[in-house]
Amino acid sequence: MKKYYILSLVVLLMSSCAQQQKLTRGTQYPKMYEEKPLAIVVMPPINQTNHVEAKDFFYTTLYAPLCEKGYYVYSPMMTMEMFQSESAYDAEQFIEGDLMQFRNVLGADAAMFTIVKSWKRNKVGGTLTAGVEYILRSTKTGETLYQREGLISVDTSVNTGGGGLLGSLMNMAATAISTAATDKVVAGRRCTVYVLSDMPEGQYGTMYGKDQNQAAGKSYIEATVK
Q: How many whole angstroms separate alpha carbon 128 and alpha carbon 181?
Protein backbone atom coordinates (compact mmCIF):
# COMPACT_ATOMS: atom_id res chain seq x y z
CA MET A 1 0.00 0.00 0.00
CA LYS A 2 2.84 2.34 0.91
CA LYS A 3 4.63 1.64 -2.39
CA TYR A 4 1.42 2.31 -4.32
CA TYR A 5 1.01 5.64 -2.53
CA ILE A 6 4.59 6.70 -3.30
CA LEU A 7 4.22 5.68 -6.95
CA SER A 8 0.98 7.63 -7.27
CA LEU A 9 2.63 10.68 -5.71
CA VAL A 10 5.57 10.49 -8.15
CA VAL A 11 3.20 10.21 -11.14
CA LEU A 12 1.17 13.16 -9.85
CA LEU A 13 4.30 15.30 -9.42
CA MET A 14 5.59 14.40 -12.89
CA SER A 15 2.22 15.24 -14.44
CA SER A 16 2.15 18.56 -12.59
CA CYS A 17 5.67 19.46 -13.76
CA ALA A 18 4.79 18.60 -17.36
CA GLN A 19 1.76 20.88 -17.22
CA GLN A 20 3.80 23.71 -15.72
CA GLN A 21 6.46 23.39 -18.41
CA LYS A 22 3.95 23.63 -21.25
CA LEU A 23 3.95 27.17 -22.56
CA THR A 24 1.05 28.41 -24.65
CA ARG A 25 0.60 31.76 -26.33
CA GLY A 26 -2.35 32.47 -24.08
CA THR A 27 -0.34 31.97 -20.87
CA GLN A 28 2.87 33.51 -22.20
CA TYR A 29 1.31 36.61 -23.75
CA PRO A 30 -2.05 37.15 -21.98
CA LYS A 31 -2.10 40.90 -22.54
CA MET A 32 -2.03 40.41 -26.30
CA TYR A 33 -5.41 38.70 -26.02
CA GLU A 34 -6.72 41.22 -23.49
CA GLU A 35 -5.92 44.35 -25.52
CA LYS A 36 -6.14 42.83 -29.02
CA PRO A 37 -3.86 45.36 -30.77
CA LEU A 38 -4.72 45.86 -34.44
CA ALA A 39 -2.33 48.55 -35.68
CA ILE A 40 1.40 48.68 -34.91
CA VAL A 41 3.92 51.48 -35.37
CA VAL A 42 7.53 50.30 -35.75
CA MET A 43 9.95 52.44 -33.77
CA PRO A 44 13.50 53.11 -35.00
CA PRO A 45 15.75 50.32 -33.67
CA ILE A 46 17.98 50.98 -30.69
CA ASN A 47 21.47 50.13 -31.90
CA GLN A 48 23.94 48.88 -29.28
CA THR A 49 26.49 47.63 -31.81
CA ASN A 50 29.48 49.30 -33.44
CA HIS A 51 27.79 49.05 -36.86
CA VAL A 52 26.25 52.50 -37.28
CA GLU A 53 24.22 51.37 -40.29
CA ALA A 54 22.46 48.61 -38.31
CA LYS A 55 19.74 51.00 -37.15
CA ASP A 56 18.54 51.96 -40.62
CA PHE A 57 18.83 48.63 -42.40
CA PHE A 58 17.21 46.66 -39.57
CA TYR A 59 14.29 49.09 -39.44
CA THR A 60 13.25 48.00 -42.94
CA THR A 61 13.17 44.31 -41.94
CA LEU A 62 10.31 44.66 -39.48
CA TYR A 63 7.42 45.73 -41.70
CA ALA A 64 6.77 42.53 -43.70
CA PRO A 65 7.02 39.98 -40.83
CA LEU A 66 4.51 41.95 -38.74
CA CYS A 67 2.15 42.25 -41.71
CA GLU A 68 2.46 38.50 -42.26
CA LYS A 69 1.42 37.97 -38.63
CA GLY A 70 -1.86 39.71 -39.46
CA TYR A 71 -1.29 43.27 -38.22
CA TYR A 72 -1.76 46.62 -39.87
CA VAL A 73 1.70 48.22 -39.84
CA TYR A 74 2.33 51.87 -40.61
CA SER A 75 4.62 52.53 -43.56
CA PRO A 76 8.26 52.65 -42.40
CA MET A 77 9.05 55.45 -44.87
CA MET A 78 6.17 57.58 -43.62
CA THR A 79 6.88 57.02 -39.95
CA MET A 80 10.64 57.49 -40.33
CA GLU A 81 10.09 60.93 -41.88
CA MET A 82 7.74 61.79 -39.02
CA PHE A 83 10.19 60.55 -36.39
CA GLN A 84 13.01 62.61 -37.88
CA SER A 85 10.92 65.77 -38.24
CA GLU A 86 9.55 65.46 -34.70
CA SER A 87 12.93 64.64 -33.13
CA ALA A 88 11.71 61.14 -32.27
CA TYR A 89 14.42 59.26 -34.16
CA ASP A 90 16.00 58.02 -30.93
CA ALA A 91 13.61 55.38 -29.62
CA GLU A 92 15.56 55.21 -26.36
CA GLN A 93 13.55 58.15 -25.06
CA PHE A 94 10.24 56.34 -25.62
CA ILE A 95 10.91 52.70 -24.76
CA GLU A 96 9.95 53.25 -21.13
CA GLY A 97 7.98 56.46 -21.61
CA ASP A 98 4.43 57.54 -22.42
CA LEU A 99 3.31 56.29 -25.85
CA MET A 100 -0.09 57.98 -25.91
CA GLN A 101 1.07 60.50 -28.53
CA PHE A 102 1.50 57.68 -31.07
CA ARG A 103 -2.08 56.63 -30.36
CA ASN A 104 -3.39 60.18 -30.70
CA VAL A 105 -1.45 61.11 -33.85
CA LEU A 106 -1.34 57.80 -35.74
CA GLY A 107 -4.07 55.76 -34.11
CA ALA A 108 -1.57 53.02 -33.29
CA ASP A 109 -2.58 50.42 -30.72
CA ALA A 110 0.99 49.32 -29.99
CA ALA A 111 4.61 50.26 -30.69
CA MET A 112 7.26 47.71 -31.63
CA PHE A 113 10.70 48.44 -30.19
CA THR A 114 13.82 46.51 -31.18
CA ILE A 115 17.23 46.54 -29.54
CA VAL A 116 20.04 45.37 -31.82
CA LYS A 117 22.56 43.98 -29.35
CA SER A 118 25.01 42.27 -31.70
CA TRP A 119 25.78 41.83 -35.39
CA LYS A 120 28.61 39.59 -36.53
CA ARG A 121 29.56 38.40 -39.99
CA ASN A 122 31.71 35.28 -40.39
CA LYS A 123 32.68 34.96 -44.06
CA VAL A 124 34.74 31.79 -43.67
CA GLY A 125 32.20 29.97 -41.50
CA GLY A 126 29.35 31.24 -43.64
CA THR A 127 27.12 32.82 -41.01
CA LEU A 128 25.55 36.15 -40.20
CA THR A 129 24.61 36.35 -36.52
CA ALA A 130 22.22 38.94 -35.12
CA GLY A 131 21.24 39.40 -31.50
CA VAL A 132 17.96 41.33 -31.23
CA GLU A 133 15.35 41.92 -28.54
CA TYR A 134 11.75 42.66 -29.57
CA ILE A 135 9.41 44.57 -27.25
CA LEU A 136 5.79 45.38 -28.14
CA ARG A 137 4.22 48.00 -25.85
CA SER A 138 0.65 49.20 -25.68
CA THR A 139 0.09 52.85 -26.58
CA LYS A 140 -3.00 52.81 -24.40
CA THR A 141 -1.77 51.34 -21.12
CA GLY A 142 2.00 51.34 -21.59
CA GLU A 143 2.05 47.62 -20.74
CA THR A 144 4.48 45.24 -22.45
CA LEU A 145 2.32 42.97 -24.60
CA TYR A 146 5.06 40.84 -26.15
CA GLN A 147 8.78 40.48 -25.45
CA ARG A 148 11.29 38.03 -26.87
CA GLU A 149 15.01 38.00 -27.64
CA GLY A 150 16.93 35.92 -30.13
CA LEU A 151 20.52 35.26 -31.14
CA ILE A 152 19.96 34.05 -34.67
CA SER A 153 22.63 32.86 -37.10
CA VAL A 154 21.73 32.89 -40.79
CA ASP A 155 23.57 30.01 -42.47
CA THR A 156 24.96 31.13 -45.83
CA SER A 157 27.40 28.24 -46.31
CA VAL A 158 27.72 26.70 -49.77
CA ASN A 159 28.62 23.13 -50.68
CA THR A 160 29.89 22.81 -54.25
CA GLY A 161 29.87 19.01 -54.03
CA GLY A 162 33.62 18.63 -54.47
CA GLY A 163 35.69 16.36 -52.26
CA GLY A 164 39.22 16.42 -50.91
CA LEU A 165 41.39 19.46 -50.29
CA LEU A 166 40.42 21.16 -53.55
CA GLY A 167 36.73 20.63 -52.81
CA SER A 168 37.14 22.09 -49.32
CA LEU A 169 38.90 25.16 -50.70
CA MET A 170 36.16 25.61 -53.30
CA ASN A 171 33.48 25.34 -50.59
CA MET A 172 35.27 27.95 -48.44
CA ALA A 173 35.58 30.33 -51.40
CA ALA A 174 31.94 29.89 -52.40
CA THR A 175 30.80 30.37 -48.80
CA ALA A 176 32.82 33.58 -48.43
CA ILE A 177 31.30 34.98 -51.63
CA SER A 178 27.77 33.95 -50.58
CA THR A 179 28.12 35.48 -47.12
CA ALA A 180 29.52 38.73 -48.52
CA ALA A 181 26.69 38.90 -51.04
CA THR A 182 23.90 38.11 -48.56
CA ASP A 183 22.02 41.34 -48.00
CA LYS A 184 21.89 42.56 -44.41
CA VAL A 185 18.20 43.25 -44.79
CA VAL A 186 17.54 39.63 -45.83
CA ALA A 187 19.45 38.32 -42.81
CA GLY A 188 17.67 40.74 -40.49
CA ARG A 189 14.27 39.76 -41.84
CA ARG A 190 14.99 36.04 -41.32
CA CYS A 191 15.95 36.82 -37.74
CA THR A 192 12.72 38.75 -37.20
CA VAL A 193 10.54 36.04 -38.76
CA TYR A 194 12.11 33.35 -36.59
CA VAL A 195 11.91 35.23 -33.29
CA LEU A 196 8.34 36.47 -33.85
CA SER A 197 7.15 33.01 -34.90
CA ASP A 198 5.18 32.54 -31.66
CA MET A 199 3.63 36.00 -31.63
CA PRO A 200 -0.20 35.81 -31.49
CA GLU A 201 -1.77 36.66 -34.85
CA GLY A 202 -3.50 39.95 -35.58
CA GLN A 203 -6.94 40.55 -37.09
CA TYR A 204 -5.81 39.76 -40.65
CA GLY A 205 -4.32 36.40 -39.65
CA THR A 206 -6.17 33.15 -40.22
CA MET A 207 -5.70 32.17 -36.56
CA TYR A 208 -6.76 35.50 -35.04
CA GLY A 209 -8.34 34.84 -31.67
CA LYS A 210 -7.86 31.09 -32.07
CA ASP A 211 -4.19 30.53 -31.26
CA GLN A 212 -4.23 30.84 -27.45
CA ASN A 213 -3.49 27.15 -27.02
CA GLN A 214 -0.70 26.98 -29.57
CA ALA A 215 2.81 26.49 -28.22
CA ALA A 216 4.84 29.54 -27.24
CA GLY A 217 8.62 29.66 -27.30
CA LYS A 218 11.08 30.61 -24.60
CA SER A 219 11.72 34.29 -23.96
CA TYR A 220 15.33 33.87 -25.17
CA ILE A 221 16.34 31.62 -28.06
CA GLU A 222 19.44 30.75 -30.04
CA ALA A 223 19.13 29.16 -33.47
CA THR A 224 20.66 28.81 -36.92
CA VAL A 225 18.35 29.31 -39.91
CA LYS A 226 18.83 28.92 -43.63
A: 11
